[in-house]
Known about the structure:
The protein is mainly alpha-helical. The protein has helices at 2-16, 19-42, 49-52, 75-84, 97-106, 119-123, 148-184, 189-219, 224-255, 263-290, 294-303, 305-328, 332-353, 365-442, 447-472, 475-484, 488-496, 512-535, 551-581, 588-613, 615-631, 643-648, 653-666, 672-694, 699-711; strands spanning 56-61, 66-68, 71-73, 90-93, 111-115, 137-140.
Amino acid sequence: MRNVLNIIIHDFKRLTSSVVAMVVLMGIIVVPCLFAWINTLSNDDPFEPASTGRIPVAVFSEDEGAEMLGLSINVGEIVTDTLAANDMIGWDIVNTKDKALRGVKSGKYYAAVIVPKDFSEDMMSFTRGDMEHPQLLFYENQKTNAIAPKITGKVREVLEQEIDAAFIDTVGQYITMAASAADAAGVDPQDAFRDLSDTMRTLDADLANSVVMVRAAAGLSDAAEDLLKASDQLMGSSGDTIALGEQLLESAEGRIPEKVDTSSVSNTVHALDAILLRDLKKIQDDLIAVSDDMGKYNSFVDNELDKQKTLASEMKSSVDKIVSKLNSMDLTGLASRFSRISDRLGTIIDRLDSDRLKKADASNWATMQGYMNEILAEVDSAQKSISKIDADVDQELDKKLNQAVSDARNAISETRSTLSGVYGDMDLLADALDKSDRSLRSLQGGLDGTVTTLLSLQNGSRNLAAMFDNLSNSDLLKDVNHLKTNDAEVIAENMASPIKMGTEEIYPIRNFGSVMAPFYMVIAQWIGAMFAAVMIHVQVRRRKGIEGTKLHELFFGRYRLFMMIGLFQAILVALGNLLYVGIQCVHPLLFILAACVNSIVFTMIVYGLVFAFENIGLAAGVILMVLQVAGSGGTFPTEVLPPVFRALFPFMPFRYAMDALRECIGGMYDHTYLKCLGILLLFGLAAIAIGLLLHKPMRGLIEKVEESKEESDVML
């Protein structure tokens, strides 16, 4: 033990007596730490919109549009408008296809999205029965960067989701508007089918009377003239029935106004929307201003939070009043949309009024920021909904409603025309009876054919009555009636996103940099151990005062210097990550302890290899680092790595070093932390055994290697 202490004291004196030695020593400690900090900072949030939003992607639409249900639809415009509001990627809407493609080739853009001319036409092809799958053209420059193509690859998923949602939203609104028009016209599908059923039953009864009369005529040929008169009366009765139907439709058409004046409602809605957007913007700006400064946040809680609650409550009261007014005017769709705004404002009030927003300190600041982000998300959602209402209100209350009313009037007119056509059928039946009169005069047996025809007509009218009756009471028609009473935005939203997935994060980590910090830390600590082995002699030179020193004393005497360098480096890199980089860490003291254990083990492994094998051991340390960087699970899951790395994974110190650090960053599970540190220490014991047991047996081989290197007259 005395010899070990002598070696340590001698090393300390020699190092402190040389300025260059101290500078080199500081470099060995600090440079690997810089590697860890810089890489962790660069990976802070690379996949969040704040970062990916700076990746430029060009967008150009050649779409010429299409028609659906008599309405013009241009999905290309929907795509460009939707992407312009999406901050996940740095979308650049360009005016020519050539500009987009040249930008991709030159590297100005990482990718380009082109909407073809026939995109809308293909999208609407299902209405023609010849479905054509629409295709977007996606151009990607894969040589610009290794990771950027992976990020822009997500663009395709975003495009599919946005286009599907926008298309279904548009179709859903058009269908609902058509249903609203029918409702405004007083046309109820169930009542209409019920009336048709009653008419068919009346015709069935009249035809039954005709059959009786014709059969009587077959038996009493001299009463044929009276029979034909009765048939004429029957036709008159049927004509009266159809005339009554025409009168009902004419009355319904008269109840539909030529044009609906919505200017007063529009002006009121616009004024309210402007006030709501202004007040929500104030709440949003105030929250953003304090979200990154704990001092400003605490001042906000003391002085401004109650004012924000009062402001939100006043906004909700104003919205509730407009909802009541719109319902009284039978504008239920618009009232429903404002009702959802009221619900969102209620959620904002609840969050502002809860005990969750309280004074912040170092322990709960991240949680308070999370709560503020939730409130900001609700505010943003409310702003978007209000802006959507403000943009749509004139079109919905004026142009589309009046167009729908016009369509309803046209539909009723066409129905009246159809009923008028029935008169022609009655004339044909009257002609048939006239022919039957002539047939009776020439051949009595011809009446049998007339009876057969009337029975067929009677049977058909009975079947139609049953069909209309079933339709009027069908669940499908009831569902249609229920759907048309709902707001278009609700239906479209449910069609576009029918499933909502609730996600509960286990051991949540707030950013990607915190996830990657353990990987870069262990690399830096291993590099530090390698630097020390390169710059400091592992072998202790024999000198006065340490004569008769044993092998293990030489081993542990010089190792203490390596261990101290590793510990200084571990504390520095851990504190830098916690205080400078600002990574998430649930257990900071255990984090520092894990870093210290990592350095002790890493320096022991490298020191043991170099002590036993000298330069060969140094090369082995480099190989071990390369293998562990690729296959220790620091970046990719081990399950996706080649078989050789999956086989070596349990024997890699990096694995256990990173797992111990991750336990401190995300949260502890059972005894994982202690287990990882225990296995690491076993690696250290194995390195001690290698250094002590193989030092002497390898001397001969080492000398031959050194002699061979010297003979080359090139290598050191």
